[in-house]
Design a protein that fits this description.
Length: 388
């Protein structure tokens, strides 16, 4: 999200330009087309969806573009609790009824610094950190393939995630287009986060503790180099309302990250196609509308849709390795509050999942099976931005 300290587009409502109507239709068409395309073609993951917090709104929401030679510090927070299992779009209620559901608690913090080089181009670096836990209890014989003894798994995982560096550029000159624009970002994500954290835990009651690798869904890093690509767009409709569309995609050229995928005690060993953890692509799409309240200076309400997940087929590289494809679609209401002339910004969102789908992975199809994944009902998001 960009916004200016030198020129507030909220005070320049008469500068939309003669092509404003065409561009708003273009932005809306792109948003709808991308959402429809992704629903049919991009099949993503469950348990933990994308390692991304995301954004809402655009410069019109909060004070304009970031001025050249200025900095912006951003602190983003994301919390989710996943426990509801799905195979396809069908909830597996028996998992909760038998207390065999897997419960992930994820707290993700992104710390980012942006430097605006010119009115159009900027660079940004993001350092993520994660605090997560994963727990399951599988009663003897309670699910298909379960052994004759109870199983307990409990992991606590924390650490720095994968650092990313990106270059970003607005398609149209911000000094001439205060009411509509599209920003494209491209960069590199480095494997600085650990992908193989282990804990000592008791998996079979009454037996000694074992050293086991935590599931990839709670690991801070993905273990491979990746290429992040992003798009942010906005269009002012009038003096108080704008529409926005934001999207990001993480390209992972590697097929796996080399971390062995192990089964719980008593379960069959993974098939060769699932012997290692997959290095899977990730994506996030957001579209909605923001409304600025004239009577409460700096306050904007937002509402939209969010879709995120991991595809079964990567854009580059192979598709084997263990992954849980699927995606979640959520309603995303939120609030943005701009302070101190646009120098400080607070946002908050509470997302409610309305559709979840755990589709078959490539190994699933090869093996004639269809695994499940646990999704969250709610997603809690907050952000703070400061300019200097």
């Amino acid at each position: 999200m960009q916004f200016s300290t030198s020129k507030n587009p909220r005070n320049n409502q008469n500068e939309a330009g003669k092509h404003g109507t065409v561009r708003v239709l273009a932005v809306l068409f792109a948003a709808v087309t991308t959402l429809c395309f992704s629903a049919g073609q991009l099949d993503a993951q469950g348990c933990v969806v994308a390692h991304s917090v995301g954004e809402v709104g655009g410069p019109e929401s909060d004070g304009g573009y970031l001025a050249p030679n200025h900095w912006q510090f951003t602190l983003d927070y994301r919390h989710l609790y996943s426990f509801r299992h799905f195979v396809g779009s069908v909830a597996q209620e028996y998992r909760q009824q038998g207390n065999s559901e897997v419960r992930n608690r994820i707290n993700l913090i992104d710390m980012g610094v942006t430097y605006q080089v010119t009115p159009r181009f900027s660079v940004i670096g993001v350092v993520p950190a994660e605090f997560a836990s994963r727990r399951y209890f599988i009663a003897a014989g309670s699910i298909n393939g379960a052994p004759a003894t109870d199983l307990i798994g409990a992991w606590g995982v924390s650490g720095m995630g994968d650092i990313s560096l990106m270059g970003q550029g607005w398609i149209w000159d911000p000094t001439k287009n205060p009411k509509h624009n599209i920003q494209i970002g491209f960069g590199v994500q480095m494997p600085t986060g650990r992908d193989n954290i282990q804990n000592d835990l008791v998996e079979i009651p009454g037996q000694p503790a074992v050293n086991a690798t935590a599931d990839y869904s709670v690991q801070p890093g993905i273990g491979v180099w990746a290429i992040p690509v992003s798009v942010e767009s906005f269009q002012a409709l009038n003096s108080a309302m704008q529409v926005y569309f934001n999207g990001s995609y993480l390209i992972t050229p590697s097929e796996t990250n080399g971390v062995a995928n192990s089964s719980p005690p008593g379960f069959p060993a993974p098939a060769p196609q699932n012997a290692f953890v997959s290095a899977a692509d990730e994506y996030l799409l957001q579209a909605g509308v923001g409304y600025m309240f004239a009577k409460v200076h700096g306050l904007t309400m937002t509402g939209g849709l969010r879709k995120e997940g991991v595809p079964a087929h990567d854009l580059i590289g192979g598709d084997e390795g263990f992954r849980r494809p699927g995606y979640a679609v959520s309603l995303e209401p939120g609030v943005i509050y701009s302070m101190h002339g646009g120098h400080d910004l607070i946002t908050a969102n509470i997302d409610r999942a309305v559709y979840r789908n755990r589709i078959a992975s490539v190994p699933d199809l090869q093996l004639g099976q269809h695994g499940d994944a646990a999704f969250a009902d709610w997603l809690w998001l907050a952000s703070f931005q400061h300019r200097f």
